[in-house]
Amino acid sequence: MTVPVAEFFPSPLLADPFLAAIDPLRSPLAIDPFLSASTTAELIERLERRLTLLGAAVALVVEGLLLYAVWRFRDNDDPAPTETNHFLELAWMIATVAILAAVGLAAANALAHPALTGGAGVGVDESSADSGGTSGDDHGPGSDDLEVIVEAERFEFSFTYAGETVRTRDELVLPADRTVFLTVTSADVLHSFHVPDLGIKRMAIPGEENTVRTTPTEPGEYRGYCAEYCGHGHSEMRFTVRVVERDEFEAWLEERRG
Ligand code: CUA
Fold it and tell me: Is 36 helix (H, G, I), strand (E, B) or coil?
């Protein structure tokens, strides 16, 4: 799902000119706001789309009623005070409850999802975002899943592949379409591990481990950086996430083992 923004439009006839128009604006940006290159990012995008559509519908109804009232009661020289209308009061109360419930459910479904909590999913619909791979369960990595320990230290990130002798700095290589558990920690002060295009952001806290689970879906190179001010080298604390096909990943790992 490279360009989910297209889903806002009922037809590609409308979406394509819009995307073509904004294209020159996209490349100079460090990150692509319309890219979702992992199941986690897709989950966040989907929530945002749902809330935007809901907000747009509410705005249309409210503005529509307002315009109608302006038109309907124009030139009224003898305005009468509004009378109590129980039906109307009940209607807008129920509508408000329904809207808030929809927003709450949509948000809870995304926020409680293992792709955002890092594992401990609490009874949410697993199929609502394809987790990919073959995760053992919601509480930890399965046999086919990849585990990487992300350690932040002033001023760089290092990545240790669990069960391997492989450790890299400033570059995290991940296979596409395979579930990965990233365990984020820090050796000194507070940092934050942030990869916008993959929808991942986790605090790196000394003595603590924060796990985030995701499945990269689009091969490519993504920028990552520290998102918590940690000292004079904070702005230098950048890294690259390179998502490659599975066999390429195996070859890369094999080469690093040797
Ligand atoms: Cu590490 Cu900012």
Answer: coil
**Do residues 219 and 249 lie in contact, with contact meaning Cβ atoms separated by under 8 Å?**
no
Give the separation between CA 167 and CA 40, rounded to whole angstroms.
24
- Residue 17 pLDDT greater than 80, yes or no: no
Question: What is the Cα gyration radius of the chain?
Answer: 24
Alpha carbon separation from 133 to 1, 14, 146, 178, 183 (Å, rounded): 17, 35, 10, 5, 18
* Cβ of residue 184 lying under 6 Å from some atom of ligand 1: no
Strand, helix or coil for residue 85: coil
3-state secondary structure of 191: strand
pLDDT in tens, 145-202: 899 999 999 999 999 998 888 899 989 999 998 999 999 999 999 999 999 999 899 9
**Helix, strand or coil, per DSSP, at residue 242:** strand
How far, rounded to the nearest angstrom, does the alpha carbon of residue 126 sit from its chain's CA centroid? 16
Q: Write out the H or E segment, with its range, that includes residue 200.
A: strand 200-204
Q: How far is the CA of 151 from the centre of ligand 1 (A)?
A: 11
| Local structure of 143: helix, strand or coil | coil
229 CA closest ligand 1 atom index:
2
For residue 201, with 0-12 CB atoms within 10 Å meaning exposed, 13-18 middle and 19 or more buried, which class applies? middle
